[in-house]
Amino acid sequence: MLIQALLVERFTQAVKKLGVENAPIPISKSTKAGFGDYQFNGAMALAKQLKKSPRDIAQLIVDAVDISDLAENCEIAGPGFINIHLSKSWLAAQLMLANADLRLNVSKQKSEKVVVDYSAPNLAKEMHVGHLRSTIIGDAVVRVLEFLGHDVLRQNHMGDWGTQFGMLLAHLSDKLADNQVASTALSDLEDFYREAKIRFDNEEGFADRAREYVVKLQGGDQQCLALWEQFIQVSVSHSEEVYKKLNVTLKNEHIMGESAYNDDLTPLVDDLMARGIAQEDQGAKLVFIPELADKEGKPAVYIIQKSGGGYLYSTTDLAAIRHRCGNLGAQRTLIFTDARQALHFKQTEIVARKAGYLTSEQSYQHCPFGMMLGKDGKPFKTRTGGTVKLADLLDEAVDRATSLLASRDLSHNESALANIAKTVGIGAVKYADLSKNRTTDYVFDWDAMLSFEGNTAPYLQYAYTRIRSIFRKAKVDLESQSAEIVISNDNESALAVKLLQFEETLIVLAKEASPHLLCTYLYELASLFMRFYESSPILKDEVTAEIKASRLSIAALSAKTIKQGLSMLGIDTLEQM
Ligand code: ARG
């Protein structure tokens, strides 16, 4: 259900009746309870055009607009706002439609082919918190896009290639020569990397061997590739473990790492050179970008091949665009990385458009995110100042949730408790991240995220189980609740309007790639549910059978919406907790 779009349609007709075509029809959700549910605030602009006072125009529109089926009243406020109060019977009818529908009456959009590039850890190292954000924000957007009917192609653009592999392979080959197996040698990638780096910096001859390995690897040397493959395999399985713990939908088949483009790089550079888009400059090949000139008017420089012949991150990203837009037919590409890469993607897009790898119908959207900070406001680190491994962070989340639940002293058996702790702990970490506007930095705070109060996963999970328990007590099946709904007070209608704004929220989220919109929505929904439940008791004796059934239906839809919403954030719900 798209209330706003419906209102825009009706008001467009009304404004047409005043003789104005193509006027903007600004309809928004009202921000205050007294101002109705939606507001039209286009009268002021029309007043100038029609040379009448805004309030007169507003009155003419109110007289002309045909919305008696869905609104019980339109009042003119202030200088000429039109406050629209949706009718209780219409709201009730819409709730029943949503309740009877497995998709909660969210329709499928015209399907678009969308490439979503997310997670993309660098395999030389252990996954760290920086990749948490990309992984879970990307995954939430993917789930919403799919729910809305889009054809999503996940692309895990892993950093599995580059000069640092020379050092790693030289070190690995020594370990294997020492009779270690790869999985043992690489059981801690962070340590492994550190050791290799120390040798690279200090050990006589090691740096040269590392460089030889790079040359051999790039030259396609079989032995070297076999060693590299072992490294990649172990490293990929580390990230798979993290994905599993995190409950994200990324699978092996979505990996399309940097190395997958190796064969495309030479022809790509040749193509750009042949068409005069790139040029040679001191042995390097580059594209000048006058669109991004500096203050003196000097164009930005985008290098696609180094003077020694090596290719770069940028070359691979151009090849990726060519593959995704050309071979896969992506109409839209979304890339989730931290904000520091913004300039790179801006330049990449300009070059790709110049080259025609991206057509004007194909969009390319870098979705930047801010940093995760510690409580001290500095980049999040371990107590000793090291990078925090994602796997450790997630284990700690589950541990903390376990103690939290133990302090609540609930009678669950051990395996039930472990499952609840996992669901709450992982949910809390994910939600704390997803609920923040992605473009800003945010402070990682265990206590806040594990609180049962406020905009947190535990609060929403608890709201859900609370509704579940109402149904258990009422001995009614939540899923098959389809009674006649009658909306009898303002708290019920406020909840109803919120429930019917689910689809609107998802559509804006899909457009802006911003999952926090869904978090805010769910938090508001759960809060309105709590208020509804206080003012509209369900299980009390004095409640008649009809009213009880109606309220149970509203509660059922609330629960289903919370569950569906959380599941699109990759967060599970529990029957009991
Ligand atoms: N591996 C990169 C990093 O860790 C992210 C890759 C993002 N995707 C891309 N197409 N460049 O920063």
From TrEMBL:
Pfam families with a match to the protein in the record: Arg_tRNA_synt_N, DALR_1, tRNA-synt_1d
Catalysed conversion reaction: tRNA(Arg) + L-arginine + ATP = L-arginyl-tRNA(Arg) + AMP + diphosphate
Domain DALR anticodon binding: 460-577
Motif 'HIGH' region location, chain numbering: 121-131
The protein's Enzyme Commission number: 6.1.1.19
Claim: Cytoplasm is one of the keywords in the record: yes
Localization of this protein: Cytoplasm
InterPro entries reported for this sequence: aa-tRNA-synth_I_CS, Arg-tRNA-ligase, Arg-tRNA-synth_N, Arg-tRNA-synth_N_sf, ArgRS_core, DALR_anticod-bd, Rossmann-like_a/b/a_fold, tRNAsynth_Ia_anticodon-bd
Arginyl tRNA synthetase N-terminal domain: residues covered: 5-86
Chief localisation class: cytoplasm
UniProt keyword annotations, A-Z: Aminoacyl-tRNA synthetase, ATP-binding, Cytoplasm, Ligase, Nucleotide-binding, Protein biosynthesis
PROSITE patterns: AA_TRNA_LIGASE_I (PS00178)
Subunit structure: Monomer.
Family of the protein in this entry: Belongs to the class-I aminoacyl-tRNA synthetase family.
Name of this protein: Arginine--tRNA ligase
Lineage per the UniProt record: Bacteria, Pseudomonadati, Pseudomonadota, Gammaproteobacteria, Alteromonadales
